[in-house]
Amino acid sequence: MNKNKVIGLNCGEFSFAEVPHEFELILGVSGTLKTLSDSEKKIISDAYKIENFTYSPSVYGDSNLIFDERQDIKILAED
């Protein structure tokens, strides 16, 4: 037990959501912008003042993900 004693020190914390507010201009953001809901787009516009969007194709190519709700989701009883 004596070997495992720890003093936890919090040296600070920050929010990644607040980082963009420190910059005057934002040139690029996530490649997932096309999939945002209207309410999410409103947050980006209101909070971060991003109003113009240019979409570029992914450098990784098209997604090969095939989602099959019947096969890829399992709902089990709690027990």
Descriptive overview:
- This protein is mostly helical.
- It has a domain at 14-58.
- 19% of the residues lie in helices and 0% in strands.
- It contains two helices and no strands.
- The chain has helices spanning 38-48, 69-72.
- It is flat, with a radius of gyration of 21 Å.
Gist of the model:
This protein is 19% helix and 0% strand.
Q: Descriptors for this entry?
A:
single chain; mainly alpha; 0% strand; flat
Low-confidence stretches: none
What's the pLDDT, averaged over the residues?
Answer: 82
| Tally of contiguous helical segments | 2
Note the main sheet: none
Using the alpha-carbon principal axes, give the shape: flat
Calculate Rg over CA atoms. 21 Å
Helix share, percent: 10-25%
Q: Briefly note the structural class of the backbone.
A: mainly alpha
SSE order, as H and E?
A: HH
